[in-house]
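INFO batch 0412 | record 1 of 1 | parsing
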Amino acid sequence: MTALPARQAADRHESVQIRVRGRVQGVGFRPAVWRFAQEALLDGEVLNDGEGVLIRVRGPRDDIARLVERLRCEPPPLAAIEAIEVAPFVGWLDEGFRIIASTTGEACTEISPDAGICAACAAEVLDPFARRYRYPFTNCTHCGPRLTIVKGVPYDRASTTMAPFPFCADCAAEYADPADRRFHAEPIACHACGPKARLIRFDGRAVSYEQHSMLDDVDAAMSLMQKGEIVAIKALGGYQLACDATRADAVDRLRQLKRRERKPFALMARDMDVIRKYCAVSPGEEQALRSAAAPIVLLAASAPLRLPESIAPGMATYGFMLPSTPLHVLLFRRMTRPVVMTSGNLSEEPQVTDDAEAASKLGAILSFALIHDREIANRVDDSVVRLAAGKVRMLRRARGYAPASIRLPRGFESAPQILAFGPQMKATFCIVKDGRAVLSQHQGDLEDAATFDDYSKNLSLFPDLFDHRPDALACDRHPEYVSSKLARQRAHSQALPLFEVQHHHAHIAACLAENDRPLDAPAVLGIALDGLGLGAAGEIWGGEFMLADYRDFDRLGTFKPVAMPGGAQASREPWRNLYAHLMAEMSWAQLAMNFSELEVFQLLAGKPRATLDAMIKGGVNSAPASSCGRLFDAVAAALGICFERQAYEGEAAMRLEAIVCPKAMAVECDELAYPLTIPNLKDSGLPYIEPLAMWNALLGDLILQTPAGVMAARFHKGLAKTLAAMTLKLSRRDDEQGPRFDIVVLSGGCFHNRILLEETLRRLEEMDFKVLTHAEVPAGDGGVALGQAAIAAAHSMVAGKIRPEGGSPCASVFRDGS
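INFO prediction complete | emitting tokens
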């Protein structure tokens, strides 16, 4: 026998260990490794452990290199690789390649978010010759439920709501076969062994699907909707309410029953062809719709067909999604029209998940429900995104995205374990461990008792899922936020240090973290525009310019502080903000002298002005706020939008954006944009945005009967122009050391406004500033918890230790911005 050349012999017996980190468990990663290794005739083994996936392999160096390259380039659809580390392996490996049992250890890997149905499973449920034909709970390692069914760790079937459904022989064989795409997919099932869907009447009367369909209960539910009925559907993360979106009578009835006055309804359509009948869809938007996350995507309602006005009153967009589960795919098989697919709840309450609660709450308003016998372990709303400035940007981060982790930037590798409790509205919480941040799914408004209960439940679940034990806590500085009160209680009871973080600093830090800005990088200018947040000295802020990094901030500029007569009531009734803004600029006599013929003047004249004047003068329940959000409300009210009342948070600003005239934005010269000036506050000398000239121009346009869309465009353009001017002003130094900063961060809920974001971004980039914006994390309060966590981690590492020497650690309270 001829001996092999020395180099070839060495190559044949090279052994390495490959460590893969990231979201690589529960997503079919080990079977992919097994398949690649089998095809390359490599020897070795692959397993899950506490750090991710571990591969030990022997074979020619080139073949091993190709294996690593295939892992990088051809991972399973739901995997998210953060690192692949290759090192020599000294040890014996048997011939052949196999998947071996997982090892125990501290949980350092990710739980995959729920994923929309993959193409293979969608084809199966529609194939009359497939075993899972019309099975509404079909899934595999590439799709299906994750967070919504998990109850604990380790993540296996026994720790999920699939535990009551033992495998049949066929499913067990698929589960055990590495060559099958259902290998170790915990939720798999079929007609023989899995959950069942049933069409019921909430009143208990008998219903037979044969009355409405020749197929099954799922198809019968759609037949009912086609006849004008509203049907409750037990979906992946909670109940949904559905009706034919083209039937104004059904939509109006749903609004009345749900007590949802004007907030837009989400829509679902069978395919892209249906959506394109009602919306213009760009390639980026189509990609988002078809992604595994399957979010609601806001689309321009500019196609030939229109839906009833009651779908999205006052809006220029529709929120569409494609069927994300096999149940929805089957439901829409015969439906060529859009369907309202809104959360199953009454207005402002959390989505119903429990069957008994559904019967109690939804049964009082509806007759029919499509239910199933698999428990929903964790409530998860639909995610909402929109395309702006060339990127898909998160508005609500939930199903399909949470709880995927975010790798924190360089410098945070040794950060302690942090739990950040987040804000009050659009609440999320965030945990930090091993240099990664895990942001919870959207929770809602914590003032609602049921929402707070769900938030508290998840606060208990996530530490178990991620083996997280916090060394420190973080919260908003606001003393009355429910989340902050809970954080203070935990800090005291668990003897943990607490970091109270200024709201707008947290907005900016969240954007820095999302954009991978290193811990010790120089400070940037953060522009944080939102409704309200507690300032450093107890003031109300909402339009702030901060020189900031993760540890500190210096407030360099602001919006004009204007009273909010009625406090929280002013956030709900835009006319109050309009009156306060006008009275901050001129007297009533001046307003009457110049603008008395305007309808808006007559409307304000009929309000209790004397009471409001006394409140503002005496500082009674009318604290001044430097809020960009309240300025939007005031302008909207002046244009007749939501003058009396907002039916939901942000309605006035959203409808003001919706009426903007695109031609005016694109063609009108900057001189017609409403002017805002930048003087200095008398007491502090701080530069601020003064809207007096804007109000004079806007009221003058009302006299001239300028179209509202043109006026809305001039306001947006003028505001963006002034934000850029303020940025340039703040960047200049008195000496010759160069600019203070060259990077600008845009954060806060006002930057969910696509027009404001794009116009501000364009102007800043034309001035050669580098601009950081949000995409994976919401710009609004849904991202605040990430910023709180990053700030707390940064301060913890500066101290070198968390617990102070002597005394109780809970006495260590850091107040950001003090």
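INFO post-check: The radius of gyration is 28 Å.
INFO record closed
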